[in-house]
Amino acid sequence: MESVNRCRLYEQEKTFQITGETIRPGGFELTRRIVGLCQFQPQMLILDVGCGMGATAQYLHTRHQLKSVGIDASHFLISRGRESNPLPPLMVGCGESLPFKDATADGILMECSLSVMNDADMVLSECRRVLKTNGWLAITDLYCKEPGRTQSHETSLIQSCLQGAQSPENILGTIVRHGFHVTLWEDQTALLRQFIIDIIWNHGSLNHFWSDKITGTCNGSDRKGMKPGYFLCIARKHPAEENTPKEVTF
Amino acid sequence: MTIQSTEPHVICVKCQEPLKPGKATFNYLGNTFTADLLKCPKCGLVFVPEELAKGRMLEVEQNLEDK
Amino acid sequence: MHVDVRALIGAVAKGDFDKALKIFSHTIPFPGIIGRICDHPCQKQCKRKEVGDALSISALERACLEYGSISEESGKPIREKTQRIAVIGGGLSGLTVALELRKKGYRITLYEAADALGGQLRTLSPDILPSSILLRETDKIVKAGISVQLNTTVTVQDLYRDFDAVYYGPGHTKVIDPLLRRNATGSFHIDHVSYHTEIEGVFAGGSLRLSPGCISPISSVADGYRTATSIDRYVKKVSLTASRDHEAPYATELYTNIEGIEPLPAVPMRIFKDRYSRDEAIGEAGRCLQCECMECVKHCGYLAYFDQYPGKCLRSISKNLILHRGFGMRLATKFINACRLCGLCREVCPTDLDLGFVNREARRIMVDSGNMPEAFHYFPIRDMLFSNSEKCTLTRHAPNMESSRFLFFPGCQLTASRPDYVEKTYDYLRSKLHEEVGLMLRCCGVPAEWAGRQECFLEEIHKFSMLWKNMGCPTVVTACPTCHHVLKENLSDIPIESLWEIFERTGLPPDAQRGGGHVLAIHDSCSARYETSIQDSVRRLITQLGYVIEELPLNRTKTECCGYGGLLYHINREVTQRVITDRISLSSADYVSYCSNCRDFFARYGKPSLHLFDLIFGKNMRDEAFHRGPGYSVRNDNRIRLKASLLKRLWGATETMREEFETTAVLISPQMEKKMEDQCILVEDVQRVIHHAERTGNKVFNPDNGHFMAHLRPEIITYWVEYTSEPEGYRIHNAYSHRLQIIEDEIPS
Q: Which of A204, C111, C364, C407 is most buried by its number of CB atoms within 10 A?
């Protein structure tokens, strides 16, 4: 995976300091809402894909008595998570290939994690496979307000949510294309603003945050000109099998 | 690696209480957010040192003024 | 084919052959072929031919093939369409049609009579087009999934029913297809825009359109490309000809200034007989003019600073206005607000593009849609409102007069900077105009216009108009070129005359000092750009006073704004610094101008500058030229004092309105004064803070240094003051401000 060589924003010490153990805008506020909106009942199996150190999985387990399982591609984060808590179970794995049998999960959460995965199409296809019929998919993430900007930062050295941010149309299109029925799309850009302000406030400036004193590779200038927003999207796995159009490789 | 190591030691004159870091609410250009400021624990009077006004506050202002 | 030749050659000039090849391949479907055999009609039109030889464009493209490389295009999944297109002829035009249509997803079948693809390309010498290259290029057809039928001769008739469209590109052929053949000569009509023939769904192009024996590889490719567009539209049942003006070559409207460019011949091929070496290619590419106009950027420090080509500027500005507020796009807002709105760009632009007009409109739109942060223009607007408040305004007929034929309107900046000149001028005018001249002290409102606050501006203009009517509609005498321009543009019914033209009629005060031949470089204010009579009048007066005038390189209609225009100074100090420094470096002579701010700005940045008033009323030119001009707090004081002093002296009236906080005595060191000045913090602001803190007791104390700290937000800025109490007043140790508003509960006082 070429992403290995990039400087992972979400693994950096700095990001921990601000958000505690949850590396995303809004902390648990959105998670709490998701649980309410999807009406998750105790003992339901909920997957947190891109779980980081497992803070959300922990939260779901402790506060909502859910059978939560966390999956993350980062060995580093998973091992740190396991150090803090043996339960709930955390595994190393990637969204493109979920280590679960078909139709076993009641819900899948991807909080600020879809945009850092390599192949959104494969991830959503896997989500569809693993979810029970009518199972819930909840995604919170960055979106990009500026159309046509998504190509410009392909060479960015920082792998973070900013890079994978797509336009709302693209995101919704991908979700729908994989047989999901969207029940909610909400703009949560205010939370993103607060997150960024927290970074500035606690690190003196965004530039200081971006500059990594040790490796010197993370540079904020890559993000100049972007207009990110933040969203919450809830969708359900559509029962019927949709015919995907035949694709031709050129 | 914390930044807030050299906070000035200031006292609220009315309450004769030293100011401590506390949550303050800010508003600018229609955006409301919270951040830490030195506050009097009794009456809530705040203090903004110059480095903060010229540093982090200015950067937040410019960020929000972005169009 | 509209290859971006400028960018391609620009890349070669830097030695970046990979990038150049990428640019070439982006447009040309068979770069390996065209790069070697293109007939380059572009070279005949190359601008460089006017200063030496045209660029050897084709040779440079050849060099890209030689020294550049690109990665194989990764498979892009294309949704296959159901429609089938037939292509007759495997020559360049047929190959191009086939490939372009395949990219759009159509199912293509290509028919070629010979046993291999290439048509006339196969007749070329292998030195020019090696067969391996030809094979590699034509293989793209097969790799794309196009069905190729070699050794097959077909007629349009055969295919007509089975395909949704047919392309006929047989090249130079003696036998025209029977269905298309109309008359004995075998010629038939092809629409020059759509390439559609008279048969429905049948298109034709390529060499067959040219005279016998003529070939033009690029023409064949272009035909193929354009026909593919036509066929795509035809199948989609969309107009074949709409909006296709710029597909074919067309004359450019671009103006490129070739003044001062040394004529240079083309770089010869010394190492290889038929192509450039790497270094030769780079050298030849270096001759490229990189044609672009940039006249405005060449003349404007602001445009140069932002390094933006005008077309890009317009796009940035429109994007800024369309998208909603949020994070990002800092540049466009800064850009819009840093323009001096002075009109120089329009003057130098071959097409009269006026970026000032665009920026002014953009500001209005931002204000109207609630997207202009109030803090940006807060200070100058506040200054304007202050000038138009009770404390500073005065509108009166001359003492003991009940009517006025003239109304002296000095403007708010002169009043703030040199109230003494206002008094002297008014006294002199009264003596020369039989006391029939009234006085109006106020601001014309231009800061609001520059800030995009149109409503506010119109209000101020309206007030001026009302006051003028009440004075009996006198002729307004302006001392400030900007006031003059504002009145002319917005209150055209009001008769106005420049003070300088009046002085020419009345004569100058006899005790005015003479210049003794001292040379002064004259700076015209940007607002007087088109006021030739004012420009002339000023020059005559200066000469009359015994000075020798030197004209700056950009003057009169092409004058540059000092930095006050458009409120630049308050928006961007860096750009201000740059434009002023550039302006004052144009001559070693002392400057003279007839606008108070121009003079003050130049003096502040180190250029000895005089105002025409200095020449008329001044006693010591050296002192006046180096005089820096008062700070903001003093300017406000000057306005108040001028009104009070005139009221007392001339009209025997006293008006004292002092607010409570004004009695707060403050002690400010020169360094502190400078710091406050830099941040646009007035003494008044500091007084308010301390008055409030002392009254409510809401202050913070630092035991380490014994200082008190307090804050207040009178309008939209929060001011912080650090002070100590001394017998003579409050000693100010520090003052700063911020725009973020801290939401505080009401603290009981």
A: C407
